[in-house]
């Protein structure tokens, strides 16, 4: 019996360069007699892909939420952006997610097309490493009630919405006053997101196993302001004091944007549900850092 009986496939719409990879995945799954459900955004006419063992046009399709409920695993073909979009939904059902990299960096989608067949065969047989990554919930409070909410695997970012314009905000951690700040914004990142936007803004890298968040100011008006690492169980609250016109914004994973008003409070907390991320047995976080961030690659054995 296969370790996974039903597998969902997700691919970014219009991603023509992933056709070949999709066909290869379909062939492997078909050989194992695994039931396949496609993300409803994948159109047979668009991808033009009919694999040797599977006619794409005949495969059932479903929304991402349904894939999470019906599948034992979901495979995301694309870059980290594709994974971020899928992860925010699939974490709600705890469905394991596997990423095949067709993007540029691929911290989350870490299986390369070069060894796709080998790694996918291993995972289908039950040989893999499962990681549980936490996400963030962001709630916008206005006049004492929640007016908007969004979720993020990488980061929640308060920003002015304009180039070279500042927003003034007050930061509280667990309802304790930290500081009042004028800056281009503030990045609140998970360990997963610490290697993304937060890293480019000068923040530290957090190992994925850590239960922590990092707060990284963006071009603060006070030079002594530095990134701050806090526990993941903490509640981060931001109160908008003054902002540019048009209004400042809150961005989640760079894919969801919410408009703010002076006086709004943003509460950011750890999400109860977690993303179950699958890796090959040979997965090595520091090897990923070396290859994707250009670290020294000389091999050294532990003394």
From TrEMBL:
GO terms for biological process: NAD+ metabolic process; NADP+ biosynthetic process. SUPFAM superfamilies: NAD kinase/diacylglycerol kinase-like. Its main location: cytoplasm. The keyword Nucleotide-binding applies. This is NAD kinase. It holds the Pfam family NAD_kinase. It comes from the Bacteria. The keyword NAD applies. The active site is at 80 (proton acceptor). It catalyses: NAD(+) + ATP = ADP + NADP(+) + H(+). Involved in the regulation of the intracellular balance of NAD and NADP, and is a key enzyme in the biosynthesis of NADP. Catalyzes specifically the phosphorylation on 2'-hydroxyl of the adenosine moiety of NAD to yield NADP. NAD(+) binds at residues 80-81, 154-155, 165, 182, 184, 195-200, 255. Belongs to the NAD kinase family. Its EC number is 2.7.1.23. PANTHER family: NAD KINASE (PTHR20275:SF0). GO terms for cellular component: cytoplasm. It is found in: Cytoplasm. Its cofactor is a divalent metal cation. GO terms for molecular function: ATP binding; metal ion binding; NAD binding; NAD+ kinase activity.
């Amino acid at each position: 019996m296969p370790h996974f009986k039903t597998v969902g496939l997700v691919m970014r719409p219009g991603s023509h360069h992933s056709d070949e990879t999709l066909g290869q995945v379909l062939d492997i799954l078909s050989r194992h007699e695994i039931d396949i459900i496609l993300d409803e955004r994948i159109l047979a006419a668009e991808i033009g892909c009919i694999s040797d063992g599977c006619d794409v046009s005949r495969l059932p399709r479903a929304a991402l939420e349904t894939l999470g409920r019906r599948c034992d695993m979901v495979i995301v073909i694309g870059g980290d952006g594709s994974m971020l979009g899928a992860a925010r939904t699939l974490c709600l059902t705890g469905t394991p997610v596997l990423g095949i990299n067709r993007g540029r960096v691929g911290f989350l989608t870490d299986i390369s097309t070069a060894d796709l067949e080998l790694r996918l065969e291993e995972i289908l047989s039950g040989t893999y490493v499962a990681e549980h990554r936490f996400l963030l919930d962001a709630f916008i409070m206005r006049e004492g009630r929640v007016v908007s909410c969004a979720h993020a695997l990488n980061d929640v970012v308060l920003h002015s919405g304009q180039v070279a314009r500042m927003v003034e905000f007050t930061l509280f951690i667990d309802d304790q006053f930290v500081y009042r700040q004028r800056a281009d914004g503030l990045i609140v990142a998970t360990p997963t997101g610490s290697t993304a936007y937060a890293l480019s803004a000068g923040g530290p890298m957090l190992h994925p196993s850590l239960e922590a968040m990092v707060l990284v100011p963006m071009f603060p008006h006070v030079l002594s302001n530095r990134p701050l690492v806090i526990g993941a169980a903490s509640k981060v609250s931001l109160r908008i004091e003054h902002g540019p016109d048009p209004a400042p914004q809150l961005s989640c994973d760079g894919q969801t944007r919410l408009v703010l008003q002076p006086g709004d409070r943003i509460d950011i907390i750890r999400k109860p549900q977690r993303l179950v991320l699958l890796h090959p047995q040979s997965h090595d976080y520091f090897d990923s850092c070396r290859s994707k961030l250009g670290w020294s690659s000389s091999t050294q054995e532990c003394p």
